[in-house]
Design a protein that fits this description.
Chain lengths: 298, 206
């Protein structure tokens, strides 16, 4: 199977990274019959606890062993305890107590990741960014899409995700704070592309493939103007070579929807929790455009 | 519990039941067996229907017809076109709910589920609203930034060359809201303000 590995990154928090990963992943699995793996490498473990009830998540990742934490812990302590099959969560448990979305798999994170972030930096730089890839790339082949949910920073774990990825997706909230960070992000990714090049012979080097706008509100001028400024900024970065000519803002923009927020409490993607909501509709349309962009099928 | 665990539990119960079947007696066991048996019959019927619909592509078709995409984009006209396209027949129903049911039944009879799924996916993809783009937009965005870089006098001179219609197009393309009552002077003022802001913001970000 030819998989597409996409890192969802933005060092600004609260931009809808996890919501995008969870809801696009669920829509790909349910409506497009794609086999999807979500890899949570954020110590906050947001995509893990969105898709798993907290008690089940605590039980599953107890001590960090059946989570992405173990990959890093193994590298730091020269151990080999990470077991992909054991760590994998298959499907999403609904209110019936039975699983739905059998094509959606999750490799959960554990908060223990927080405690080793500092130690990871002590490893050899070339080893750090290859850690995730070395542990998981063999399994990626089983999936159509691998979505890497990164923490809101550009430290070691995020760099490892970017190293593993074919492309990066940047969730974005239309305001100046996001815009000012976006240029820095583009520069950092270009810098990583150059540093990673010797280690990626014959492989695509990561670039920003797409931006996804969340928390959009149609009223007033504010968001339309902010998106226009983002488009102007993208055009400028493309002219200066910091972004590829293929980088695009995927539409539709995901509107603010309270049902999406509620769905986190139900530990379900919005597609299962409130399929009639505008949030579910926006994510369905967005996923269609996402497929179109990354598969160039239409 | 997942379905594999349920299968293992049923298997385990089946093995134990088989081992002790000849020795089981009493009303409470009989009642419990009756309840389980009737539930099992219903479960097997559902499971058979599920497996068959999944195999034939009908499950995905039904999922699509109940999806958020359908809620937003599905119309009677679309189903009418779909039925004609997929099986070459006319849709009889005139109400959406009934039309969905008819669509599923007639596609099922013809065995064209895969074609119907493809039709719906293409139709939903085609119905997604996209902001207008293209060369006009890119060139109007460039002109907007150029206007933002002009001094007050230069801007006043340049804007004189634009008709009200052109100013409206420029404003609309660059995300500036206005009404039919917005006059030329007010519109030029808005363009001035937001074009300058855009220049400042994108150069500060870049």
């Amino acid at each position: 199977m030819s998989s597409r590995v996409l890192a969802f990154i933005n060092f600004k928090g609260g931009v809808g990274k996890t919501a995008t990963v969870v809801n696009i992943g669920a829509t790909l699995a349910k409506l497009h019959e794609k086999k999807v793996l979500i890899v949570d490498i954020d110590p906050q473990s947001n995509s893990s606890v969105w898709l798993m009830r907290p008690d089940r998540w605590h039980e599953h990742v107890a001590g960090g062993r059946r989570s992405t934490f173990q990959i890093y812990d193994d590298a730091l302590n020269n151990k080999n305890r990470f077991d992909f099959e054991e760590a994998l969560v298959r499907g999403v448990v609904t209110w019936t107590g039975f699983t739905d979305l059998p094509r959606l798999h999750l490799l959960p994170a554990a908060v223990e990741l927080l405690r080793i972030e500092d130690k990871i930096h002590e490893l050899r730089p070339s080893a750090i960014h290859q850690l995730l890839d070395a542990a998981l790339s063999a399994y990626f082949k089983e999936y159509d899409y691998v979505l890497l949910d990164c923490p809101p920073n550009l430290y070691s774990t995020t760099r490892g995700a970017i190293f593993s990825a074919d492309s990066c997706v940047v969730p974005y909230v239309p305001d100046f704070l996001s815009l000012s960070g976006f240029q820095v992000l583009a520069e950092e990714i270009l810098d990583m592309r150059q540093k990673f090049a010797p280690y990626l012979p014959g492989r695509r080097r990561p670039n920003i493939g797409a931006l996804i706008v969340s928390h959009y509100r149609q009223s007033g001028n504010v968001y339309r103007l902010a998106i226009n400024e983002l488009e102007l900024s993208i055009a400028q970065l493309q002219r200066s070579g910091l972004l590829s000519s293929h980088t695009t803002i995927l539409e539709p923009y995901v509107r603010h929807c309270v049902r999406v927020a509620e769905s986190t409490n139900e530990h379900l993607p919005v597609l299962l929790y409130a399929p009639g909501s505008i949030g579910a509709q926006d994510y369905c349309d967005l996923t269609e455009r996402f497929l179109n962009h990354f598969e160039n099928k239409r | 519990m997942n379905y594999a665990e349920l299968a293992a539990a049923l298997h385990h119960a089946g093995e134990r039941l088989s081992k002790h079947a000849a020795k089981i007696e009493g009303e409470s066991m009989g009642r419990a067996a009756q309840v389980l048996s009737s539930h099992l019959v219903k479960f097997e019927e559902l499971l058979d229907a599920y497996i068959a619909s999944r195999k034939s592509g009908e499950l995905l078709l039904e999922t699509l017809l109940r999806s958020p995409s359908a809620k937003r984009h599905l119309t009677i006209d679309l189903l009418r076109d779909g039925l004609r396209d997929v099986i070459g027949k006319r849709l009889k129903s005139s109400e959406l709910r009934a039309a969905k049911r008819e669509f599923i039944e007639r596609v099922h009879e013809a065995g064209n589920q895969d074609e119907a799924v493809k039709f719906l996916k293409d139709a939903f993809a085609g119905a997604i609203h996209l902001e207008p783009g293209g060369k006009d937009k890119a060139s109007l965005q460039r002109e907007y930034v150029d206007l933002g870089r002009l001094s007050d006098d230069e801007f006043a001179q340049e804007i004189e060359k634009w008709s009200l219609g052109e100013l409206r197009q420029l404003a609309e393309t660059n995300g500036i809201r206005f009404t039919d009552k917005t006059n030329r002077q007010r519109l030029a003022g808005l363009i001035r303000r937001y074009a300058q802001r855009a220049v400042f913001n994108i150069s500060a970000a870049g």
